[in-house]
Amino acid sequence: xxxxxxxxxxxxxxxxxxxxxxxxxxxxxxxxxxxxxxxxxxxxxxxxxxxxxxxxxxxxxxxxxxxxxxxxxxxxxxxxxxxxxxxxxxxxxxxxxxxxxxxxxxxxxxxxxxxxxxxxxxxxxxxxxxxxxxxxxxxxxxxxxxxxxxxxxxxxxxxxxxxxxxxxxxxxxxxxxxxxxxxxxxxxxxxxxxxxxxxxxxxxxxxxxxxxxxxxxxxxxxxxxxxxxxxxxxxxxxxxxxxxxxxxxxxxxxxxxxxxxxxxxxxxxxxxxxxxxxxxxxxxxxxxxxxxxxxxxxxxxxxxxxxx
Length: 308
What we know:
Elements (H helix, E strand, L loop, with lengths): L2 E3 L4 H8 L4 E3 H4 L7 E6 L5 H13 L5 E6 L11 H7 E2 L9 E6 L15 H14 E7 L1 H11 L4 E15 L13 E11 L2 H5 L4 E7 L3 E7 L4 E4 L9 H11 L25 H17 L14
Parallel strand pairs: 1-2, 1-4, 3-4, 3-6, 4-5, 6-7, 7-12
Antiparallel strand pairs: 8-9, 8-10, 10-11, 11-12
Helix pairs in contact: 1-3
């Protein structure tokens, strides 16, 4: 089944070229079916790239998904045209009275700042509080996961000695969770961040379950019982060249970054990186949509129960 996105969204052509089943708004109007309503709060500076990455994964499932894009009103995007933002993005004031089957909150390049110092932190807190009553399952990525763990459960983040960048091995720790159904015991996923959370802090919270972790990258996947809140500390949605682009950007800014671990063949940054996490990424989003959105969300999404 397809993902439904706006007719002219740049991702539409990209996904169609990749044989991802995309349904435009015009065609979707002819179908008598209730698609899953998924809201994407895109905090990444690379808006179009992130839209495409996540639409690709959401579209590679047997479910019909209607994706709506949202930005914060308290921060103006600087790396994409305002025309694009005005045409394709909504703001919280326009959705606060609506209900959604699922929501994704992305990462953001503000990790070194205290949460309270982030320009849009008050607005994000309002949105995260709203998800508890208006979203059936919320999926948080990287800094978005750290922000939500801090807001909802008081779990702090800690600055790392240097940037964590690369593709790391992870071990499934809670095989009973449907979110890891079909996962290999050891799987790969990218990370790109300057901060981390600590296992001891997470384990103190009785509402949270650690599903997977990495010896080098730390805890990767956390979920509440029932899957109303999911926290992923890495970037399984990344394209094959995303870490490469970030590495070259940092090097161009004089940061002198380390070569991303286990990413370039033989750690040679002149060679083309290989994607070793695509299968895991697709399975992760398929499991989330199927088991924690589609199979448990009420048919009438206006009757979603609050997160307890």
